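User: Just a sanity check before I run the rest of the batch. Below are the structure tokens for the first item. I only need the designed sequence back.
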């Protein structure tokens, strides 16, 4: 299966900082587990190498040593699922260093078009030269999420097509990135449009279901695992098992289980509103993330654009999640107001 490992290594390579091929069967980059040195960005101590009929990973800084599948699963779980499926159909059951894919042949549930379908092109279907596709790529939004995002060249007409009784004023010919909010069954609850031009109103959120909770990602979250709650929907796409509230009030996700969720506000220690919100979360017993001082970026997307990898950000969040008295102590060190 060496050819398959190399194929997926090339697919994941844009997400590996400093990726280079040193020899025919040896590749080098900054370790996504430990992040390598924070002082010397040129340090690259992560290696992919050939062993037998497959590839393996080794870091000479944090000593992580694992199979290529486990490495791929850590860096990009969605791509790992594609890998396991392709390997299975190529006879991967003969090898023991990967997880056999699960197949679900349950009878599909049919829902009405209004609840599930959006009659717009997905970002994944647009050509690379399309300005909406370029916007998404420039923000480094994970490609696995492109099929869940849409493009509208006239936001007003699109909104009126799904909600004819919408009464607020919208302008004509307003191109936007469309971010759908769905419930666990896929039912459309909200639509958010992100401006792709100079419109000063960057985000517009439209309520489709009057009795619904504004929470992005419910259709993809695993409630059995720890759930990360961010402000921005785009930020949530960079984390494992995350939802977003589309505003600073992250506590609306409490129904998912207070002990299960981690609230990840924007990193704004000088913003009095954010500071007050986080203090309230701590007083109410939530798990909260407080970014360490060396993280200078405001939100997760800015961290990615600033050169930080998804695994590195995930690790920082997990290592800087606190509750109770420890959260109070770290909060007092974090805030700047």
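Assistant: Here's the designed sequence for the first item:
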């Amino acid at each position: 299966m060496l050819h398959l490992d190399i194929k997926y290594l090339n697919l994941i390579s844009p997400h590996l900082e400093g990726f280079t091929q040193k020899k025919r069967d040896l590749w080098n980059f900054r370790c996504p587990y430990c992040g390598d040195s924070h002082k010397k960005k040129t340090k690259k101590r992560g290696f992919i190498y050939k062993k037998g009929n497959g590839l393996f990973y080794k870091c000479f800084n944090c000593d992580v040593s694992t199979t290529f599948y486990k490495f791929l699963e850590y860096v990009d779980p969605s791509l790992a699922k594609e890998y396991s499926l392709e390997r299975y159909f190529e006879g991967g059951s003969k090898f023991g260093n990967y997880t056999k894919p699960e197949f679900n042949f349950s009878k599909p549930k049919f829902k009405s078009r209004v609840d599930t379908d959006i009659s717009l092109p997905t970002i994944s279907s647009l050509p690379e030269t399309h300005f909406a596709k370029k916007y998404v790529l420039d923000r480094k939004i994970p490609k696995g999420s492109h099929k869940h995002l849409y493009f509208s060249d006239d936001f007003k007409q699109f909104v009126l097509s799904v909600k004819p009784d919408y009464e607020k004023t919208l302008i004509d010919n307003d191109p936007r990135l469309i971010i759908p909010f769905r419930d666990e069954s896929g039912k459309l609850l909200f639509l958010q449009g992100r401006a792709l031009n100079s419109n000063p109103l960057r985000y517009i959120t439209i309520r489709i279901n009057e009795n619904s909770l504004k929470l992005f990602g419910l259709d993809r979250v695993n409630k059995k695992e720890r759930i990360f709650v961010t402000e921005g929907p785009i930020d949530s796409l960079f984390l494992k098992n995350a939802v977003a509230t589309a505003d600073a009030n992250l506590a609306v996700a409490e129904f998912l289980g207070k002990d299960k969720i981690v609230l990840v506000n924007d990193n704004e220690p000088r913003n009095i509103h954010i500071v007050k919100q986080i203090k309230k979360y701590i007083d109410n017993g939530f798990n909260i993330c407080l970014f360490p001082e060396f993280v200078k970026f405001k939100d997760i997307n800015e961290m990615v654009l600033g050169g930080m990898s998804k695994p590195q950000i995930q690790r920082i969040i997990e290592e800087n999640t606190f509750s109770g008295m420890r959260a109070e102590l770290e909060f007092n060190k974090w805030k700047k107001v």
